[in-house]
Amino acid sequence: MKNSLLQNELKTDLEKFLSDQLSKYPRSDLLKVDLHCHDCNSDEPSEILGRILRVPETWIPTSRVVEELIKNECDLVVITNHNNTRSCYELEKKGIDNLVAAEFSCILPVYNFTLHVIAYGFSKDQEKILNKLRKNIYDFLEYACLNDIPTIWAHPLYHYITDKMMCMDFFEKMLLIFERFEMLNGQRNTWQNMLVKEWVENATPEIIDDLSKKHNINPKKYCKDPYKKSFSGGSDSHSGFFAGLAGTYLYIPDLENRKKKEKLSDLTLEAIKKGNMFPFGSHENSEKLTITFLDYVCQVALNFKDPGLFRILLHKGTTSQKTLSLLISNAFSEIQRHKITTTFVRTFHNSLLGKSPAMLKKLIVKPAYKSVFEDITKISKKYQTEKEIISEEYYKTICSINLHLNKLLFKRFEKKISSKKWAKQFEISNLENLVEKIELPSNIRAFVEKSGKKKNNLNIGEFFDGLPFPFLTSLLILSAHFTSAKVLNMTRPFLKVFSEKLNKYTFPKRMLWLTDTFGDKNGVSVTIKAMLEEIKKYDYPIDVLVCSSKLESEDHLIVVKPLYEFTIPNYPDQNICIPNFLEVHKLFQDREYDRILCSTEGIMGAIALYLKHAYVVPASFYIHTDWVMFSQKVLNFDQHNRNRLRRFMRSFYGAFDRLFVLNNDQRKWLISREMNFPKEKVCLTAHWVSEIFHPVKITKKEIFGLDNDTLVMLYVGRVSKEKGVLELPNIYRKVKMTHPNVALVVVGRGPVFDELKELLPEVIYRDWVNREKLPAIYSAADVFVFPSKFDTFANVVLESLSCGTPVIAYSSKGPKDIIEHGKCGYLVKTEEQMCERLVAYLGKPEEQTYFRNAAVERAKNYDKNNIMSRFLDDLELK
Q1: Are 501 and 168 a contacting pair, CB within 8 Å?
Q2: Kind of pairing, strands 571-579 and 595-598?
Q3: Positive or negative, the Cα torsion across 634, 637, 643, 646?
Q4: Residue 47 DSSP code
């Protein structure tokens, strides 16, 4: 897929800027240097997870970085490890000319904020002082200025605190105290890099003077020339693989003669001090960073050592960070236990370095894994290709490996669950027992007891036997994608605000709406299809995404094909489709979505949360179903397991930034002490029905084949237990005792259709009909009977009212909000009351005209324009 509008603009502007800079100087007077890269001596991770798990930022030896820099035609080696210069002096001992440098983590007082500042050309004694002074950025920069030590603010718009947004005052102060800014960082996206350029270029001398007065800061204490701002570039490579692909051109007049007498390191330092430099590099994409992180994950998997439980529990960090660290630690330990996975990881890591798998490995590899190892061989053969091309080729091969492993995983998974041993465990009728079995015990002894003892819990280890290699390897690839997206987008909320203040490179507002169901005969599908028509009509910035093997993409509807699909027992008409996560991941990035809405708690619910955290975007959830009541009415959960489900739903919904609900009862429940969601987080919305639903003049004879004096009760919808349809036999027979000429018409299908037909053979049954035929069916009936206590809205109720047919329903959830009691229908609490109301209503033909007119008027309140307008407001898409 081509880059979208913003990415095209960024790429074009970056290429023009770099080209303009390069045209200003004779190529013979330029040194090409990567002023920002790391090796194995960068052993202090910036991220909290790395510190908790006690893993360095890289294991790459200095020699490997030097080799890569030379290969990418850099003129000088510069290693900028965190807070130390060990690699620089090791190179010096080997007689390799290099510029002494380090990336210092400096603290900004008051804000308690960490900045990364690269300093160049200092002595060992000065390094000690700089490390002491880095606790205060002002002292650090003042000392550097006094001692003529040039500094560069690395990745100025990237920071490691995601829960706090820095104010513009902070950036105004930094503009005063820094002379040099890293404008092109190879580990950050072009959006971030170009915003740095735009921001710094706008700093005129007049602005600098005004800011100096505003903040009472004398910039000359920190800068040799506070009015001259310059840009640098650096790969910020931690893997060595892309070292030298981004960096800095340094202008040294008469370079050819001077380098005969002077060291390149001295000339480089001189150019940095004078600010005679400009960046080089390219449009940064996620593919390059994904490869970097995948290689890093491989290194961690090969070198990981258990940090210890007490270290994880007692280390600084939030509960979620420690929980994640514990999960990561266990994942890497599991990888190291599995020989095939470890072999793959080592072979893959070596292939990135151009080392082809040994012939013996190719011969002994299992047939199922042949294609995977063939792809790895392709990677090693492409090593000598131009790096800007190789990243794309590598990425394609990685996606091919992932696709093959996923298919293999699902094939084995299907075989596993279809076996007699496991099939019964996953039956829906046995779901309550399954919920109990997957509960983790709080008693530590339960985890260490001998295997001979009887266990009540599901044996997860036994179930996953045979699945580890495709599962763990796919997980590694997905985690690399997630991490690269997270790193690139960590400061996304701030960058959106920053770009709006600059009025440049503002990110478009565009939402991806995820759903597991579309085109089915359920209320969720009907609602989303109706919304899609409005989205198309007005070209709203919303796309709906569904995974299906039957549907095709169209305007504003994206259909991804499933890797695997299956049906749920007792619900054969509802397919569960599992897409390729990487396909959705890439699609979200390429189409530049900046928010998410999800309508289903299944696979797409998991993907929504993945995208939310990977791309750091707001995510909303549209609640269509009351699963707690479903578990009671359909799954027969006891109170204990319903509470378990409720806690799970509270956790799941709590992961979203906003919830949409369809009735007041559900909103009250969500903001009650039981669920404890803030009021402002829960938005009330509604559905509307198509314009085709209006009163139709038609006779009962034409529609049902009944005499026109027959009283017709109608039910339309899914014939399932949760819809209360098994109450219809009693209701019908009690009403018939008073009104012998009454008939019942049931339109729809479902799991208990045969059971209902056996209990009530004498009524009229119609299969699912085209929606265009429903208005006539509604209009020909005298009353619509809705015995469901389950529906959060009930589209069929609104459809019936729109056609002028009053509704009698239980006073719960959706119907309770729609029906005006005693005007366009009745709300009842018991089956007995429902029978009484039906008998009374059918016995008073004089009231029916009033009720029919009131029904049509009530339906008009559900105006799609008003509903859609409020919906877009709540989503902040206007």
Answers
A1: yes
A2: unpaired
A3: negative
A4: S
